[in-house]
């Protein structure tokens, strides 16, 4: 049985290149991988960010990766949008993995978090383009290169992305998702505050807190993260295979 294709969705202000450090491992394990740019980011930086357009970009990428079952993986903003996209129904979706996206922002908290993201441009050692020793210290040289390779979205994209997240009911979305949902969080991830509630809301939800890593765990601890991610994907494929043969619960 061939490994399922993978669609990867990045976080706020980065791009598809956030997943550069995962692609070789996914490829070696037999997965074809499709890392997309959301509106307002990467190759689509000239576009305004709009929720419906972002959700359609995710759904379209899954459709294009079919006809096999497809793994959908999202980080931070991308993880929360992936939850909403999956809840709206995507043919051939086989599993969902969310990294750093287990929090339901309200309007006030979304604005506050968005403001914090915007203020990173003014921190010592980091420029509006994201370059500088601080990002390298947080992500390591290779992680910083991957984060920035596709360009860093302008701070103006932050407000519409946060407003979009605040408009969602992610817990209700999770209740609608019938495929396996795994929350795969670094130990020091700041957006795992509701991870128990989120994983319990999904009918086939599971929580895995890794004993390492921060919010950008895929960039700053890629080798360990890649092994854990592949394990999660393989488990989803085995689970689906058992169900299709009538062996599952």
From TrEMBL:
Recorded GO CC terms: membrane
Pfam families tied to this protein: Abhydrolase_6
Entry keyword set: Hydrolase
Positions of the AB hydrolase-1 domain: 6-227
Listed InterPro entries: AB_hydrolase_1 (IPR000073), AB_hydrolase_fold (IPR029058), AB_hydrolase_sf (IPR050266)
GO molecular function: hydrolase activity
PANTHER family cross-referenced by the UniProt entry: AB HYDROLASE SUPERFAMILY PROTEIN YCLE, MONOACYLGLYCEROL LIPASE
Name assigned to this protein: Alpha/beta hydrolase
């Amino acid at each position: 049985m061939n490994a399922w294709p993978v669609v990867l969705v990045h976080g706020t202000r980065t791009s598809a290149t956030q997943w550069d450090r995962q692609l070789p491992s996914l490829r070696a394990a037999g997965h074809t991988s499709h890392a997309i740019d959301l509106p307002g980011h990467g190759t689509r930086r000239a576009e305004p960010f709009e929720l419906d357009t972002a959700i359609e970009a995710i759904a379209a990428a899954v459709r294009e990766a079919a006809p096999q079952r497809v793994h959908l993986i999202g980080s931070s903003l991308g993880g929360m949008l992936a939850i909403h996209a999956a809840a709206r129904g995507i043919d051939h979706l086989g599993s969902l993995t969310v990294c750093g996206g287990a929090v339901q922002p309200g309007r006030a908290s979304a604005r506050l978090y968005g403001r914090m993201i915007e203020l990173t441009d003014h921190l010592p050692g980091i420029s509006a383009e994201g370059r500088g020793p601080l990002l390298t210290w947080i992500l390591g040289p290779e992680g910083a290169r991957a984060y920035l390779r596709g360009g860093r979205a302008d701070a103006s994209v932050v407000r519409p992305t946060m407003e979009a997240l605040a408009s969602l009911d992610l817990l209700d979305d999770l209740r609608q998702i019938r495929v396996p949902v795994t929350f795969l969080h670094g130990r020091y991830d700041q957006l795992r505050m509701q991870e128990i509630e989120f994983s319990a809301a999904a009918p086939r939800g599971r929580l895995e807190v890794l004993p390492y890593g921060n919010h950008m765990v895929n960039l700053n601890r890629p080798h360990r993260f890649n092994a854990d991610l592949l394990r999660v994907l393989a488990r989803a494929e085995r689970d689906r295979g058992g169900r299709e043969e009538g062996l599952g619960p």
